[in-house]
């Protein structure tokens, strides 16, 4: 593989990996923007997305590669069903663990979030067991460049890579339209800017928080489905590392800034891919966090974030 093909290959790998981080990071930044809570349980909602979709596939007896009409009917049904379930779970987490602590000191809900994370992980351990789970290879892996386009190249880009990006980008764009074009989206932005004033203007802030947690959980669930389809494995502890990378992406792009979270997710994906290639996969976390520290030293509010006054 020459240098040109290497650049293309690692860029494609980074975009594919970053798509998953972007979906998870959006949930982090949405919740922080509304109630200024770092929801450390969010990575585990992503893990539940994989586990729930795996359960749905097993219950429907789908342990084979889908073809034709099945790809455009069964797969979207599994995706939507998982998003609804993980969105509802995320809302339940807020209602049970976070809502009673709305007016508590900021450290209290943060500790609660860490506790919820451990609870979800251990409940999943009981539910699915401690082993690495095999996710059904539901999507055919066809080399688009060689088999479809007929181009003689060592660059490997499959239908699975295309599916990951094809699911992620419409979801991100749909979220953008929701936030900028709908009443609830505008109410969400108003609540994020000034919760007390928004409430005084007649906005139901608690309902906005519910919507925010539901959308964030749904996006994390979608990321879990994509993870399962692409890598075909899952573990009960996988939410920790993915959540950490996604949180890093949200902070790098600008916590509370949705375009920044998406940008940060793709950037972390590219940094991870190139670190794996040029250095070593063992050093990828060190590289990613070193770059994060450097960015925050010179731009504490993130690459796309704006300096805003602290809310009270």
Q: Would you kindly provide a written description of the structure presented here, covering whatever features stand out?
A:
- This protein has a two-stranded antiparallel ribbon.
- The protein has a domain at 22-237.
- It has helices spanning 3-35, 42-59, 69-98, 107-128, 144-148, 159-181, 183-193, 195-200, 205-231, 238-253, 258-278, 284-298, and strands at 133-134, 233-234.
- The longest helix is centred in the N-terminal third of the chain and has 33 residues, at 3-35.
- The chain has twelve helices and two strands, in the order ααααβαααααβααα.
- Helices cover 73% and strands 1% of the residues.
- α3 (69-98) crosses α9 (205-231).
- The radius of gyration is 20 Å and the shape is globular.
- It is mainly alpha-helical and 312 residues long.
Give a brief rundown of this model.
The chain contains 12 helices and 2 strands. The chain has helices at residues 3-35, 42-59, 69-98, 107-128, 144-148, 159-181, 183-193, 195-200, 205-231, 238-253, 258-278, 284-298; strands at 133-134, 233-234.
Unreliable spans: none
Span between termini: 56 Å
What is the global morphology? globular
- Cα-based radius of gyration, to the nearest Å: 20 Å
Tally of DSSP β-strands: 2
Percent strand equals: under 5%
User: Helical amount among residues, as a percent range?
Assistant: over 70%
Task: Tell me the structural class.
Answer: mainly alpha
Rounded mean pLDDT is: 93
Strand order within the widest beta sheet: 1-2
| Tally of helical runs | 12
Order of helices and strands: HHHHEHHHHHEHHH
Q: What is the makeup of the main sheet?
A: 2 strands, antiparallel
């Amino acid at each position: 593989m020459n240098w040109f093909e290497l650049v293309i290959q690692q860029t494609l790998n980074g975009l594919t990996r970053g798509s998953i981080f972007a979906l998870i990071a959006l949930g982090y930044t949405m919740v922080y923007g509304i109630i200024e809570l770092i929801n450390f349980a969010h990575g585990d909602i992503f893990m539940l997305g994989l586990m729930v979709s795996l359960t749905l596939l097993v219950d429907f007896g789908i342990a084979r590669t889908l073809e034709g009409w099945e790809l455009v009917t069964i797969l979207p049904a599994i995706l939507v069903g998982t998003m609804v379930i993980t969105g509802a779970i995320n809302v339940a987490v807020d209602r049970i663990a976070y809502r009673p602590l709305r007016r508590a000191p900021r450290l209290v809900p943060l500790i609660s979030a860490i506790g919820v994370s451990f609870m979800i992980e251990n409940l999943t351990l009981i539910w699915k067991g401690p082993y690495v789970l095999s996710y059904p290879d539901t999507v055919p892996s066809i080399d688009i460049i060689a088999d479809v386009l007929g181009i003689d190249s060592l660059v490997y880009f499959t239908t699975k890579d295309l599916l990951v990006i094809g699911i992620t980008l419409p979801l991100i764009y749909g979220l953008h339209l929701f936030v900028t074009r709908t009443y609830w989206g505008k109410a969400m932005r108003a609540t994020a800017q000034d919760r007390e004033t928004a409430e005084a203007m007649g906005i139901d802030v608690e309902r906005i928080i519910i919507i925010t947690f539901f959308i964030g959980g749904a996006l994390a669930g979608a990321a879990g489905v994509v993870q399962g389809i692409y890598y075909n494995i899952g573990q009960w502890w996988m939410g920790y590392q993915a959540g950490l990378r996604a949180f890093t992406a949200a902070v790098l792009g600008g916590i509370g800034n949705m375009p920044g979270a998406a940008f940060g997710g793709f950037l972390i994906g590219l940094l991870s891919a190139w670190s794996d290639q040029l250095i070593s996969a063992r050093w990828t976390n060190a590289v990613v966090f070193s770059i994060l520290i450097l960015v925050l030293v010179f731009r504490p509010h993130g690459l796309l974030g704006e300096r805003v006054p602290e809310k009270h």
